[in-house]
């Protein structure tokens, strides 16, 4: 997960603070560098209370602009779609994650195909393969946009 994706999940209240140091370390490994990022990457389990404020400071230090929830949702949908297509998570798990993210955004239909497929997947066990295939198709469509 890159920093923009992490920021999007954070904006939607879906980024556990335990993951923040690892995301910062990954960003450093990808060539990003900032003193705040280095501090964030070095946080220990005992310092996790500092993760959220330090993450905010790091984003500001690195000139990341705050995200509106609708934009954060679009970024999350794309990130989860990639995970679905790469078989890193099941189509149903991905659709449920997108559904959860969409609960934070009022007035958008961005996630509607995923929400519909996930809800039908739950309610119609005999058609789960069909809905899983449809989730994958929608994920691929989102990645081609």
Characterize the structure shown.
The chain is an all-alpha fold. It folds into 2 domains: 3-61, no CATH class; 69-144, no CATH class. Helix content is 66%, strand content 0%. The protein is built from 8 helices and no strands. It has helices at 3-11, 20-29, 35-41, 51-61, 69-85, 91-102, 112-123, 128-144. Helix 5 crosses helix 8. The longest helix is centred in the middle third of the chain and has 17 residues, at 69-85. The chain starts with a helix and ends with a helix. The mean pLDDT is 93.
Please tell me how large the radius of gyration is: 17 Å
Classify the helix fraction into a percent range.
55-70%
Low-confidence stretches: none
| Proportion in β-strands | under 5%
What is the structural class?
A: mainly alpha
Total count of strands = 0
What form results from the Cα inertia axes?
A: elongated
Mean pLDDT: 93
Count of spatially separate domains: 2
For the termini, the CA-CA separation is 20 Å
The number of distinct helices, counting runs of at least 4 residues, comes to: 8
Short account of what is shown:
The protein has 145 residues and is mainly α. The chain has helices at 3-11, 20-29, 35-41, 51-61, 69-85, 91-102, 112-123, 128-144.
List descriptors.
145 residues; 0% strand; elongated; mainly alpha
């Amino acid at each position: 997960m890159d920093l923009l994706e992490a920021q999007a999940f954070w904006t939607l209240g879906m980024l556990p603070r335990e993951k923040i140091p690892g995301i910062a370390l990954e960003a450093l490994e990808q060539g990003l560098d900032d003193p705040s990022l280095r501090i964030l990457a070095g946080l220990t389990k005992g310092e996790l209370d500092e993760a959220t404020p330090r993450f905010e400071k790091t984003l500001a230090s690195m000139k990341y602009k705050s995200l509106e929830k609708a934009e954060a949702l679009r970024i999350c949908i794309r990130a989860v779609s990639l995970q679905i297509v790469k078989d890193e998570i099941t189509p149903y798990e991905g659709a449920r994650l997108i559904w959860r993210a969409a609960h934070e955004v009022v007035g958008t239909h961005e996630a509607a195909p995923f929400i519909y497929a996930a809800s039908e997947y739950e309610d119609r066990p005999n058609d789960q393969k069909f809905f899983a295939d449809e989730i994958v198709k929608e994920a691929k469509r989102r990645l081609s946009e």
